Amino acid sequence: MPVGTEPAPMETTALLTQLGEEVLLHQVDAIDDRIIALVADRVALVNEIQRDRTAAGGPGTRLSRETQVIARYGNSLGRPGVELALRLLNLCRYRGRGSAAAAQAARHS
């Protein structure tokens, strides 16, 4: 753009919209980073609980607890919350030493 000329109003609006979107996308990325870190923390904690349970001869999971988690997510987020809870519970399942979940949890300890 030549010196001394201002962008047309439509160009200015488009630039501001694009900049605003970039700011918002950056905020979304930051939230995603926090969610990923929280999920990794959850995996590590749940794996520790499940290891302790199985070492004591008990079941690795408690279905009543999983039902509570599913209900909590469902009550807050509806059907997509139920789906999210099921995926999260699956991700947190203890798969023993050397598993991908155990390795991931160890990296974030």
Automatic annotation (TrEMBL):
Chorismate mutase domain span: 15-109
Pfam families xref list: CM_2 (PF01817)
EC number(s) given by UniProt: 5.4.99.5
GO molecular function: chorismate mutase activity
Signal peptide: none
InterPro entries: Chorismate_II_sf (IPR036263), CM_dom_sf (IPR036979), CM_II_prokaryot (IPR002701)
Keywords associated with the record: Isomerase
TM ranges: none
Highest taxon of the lineage: Bacteria
Protein name: Chorismate mutase
Species name: Streptomyces katrae
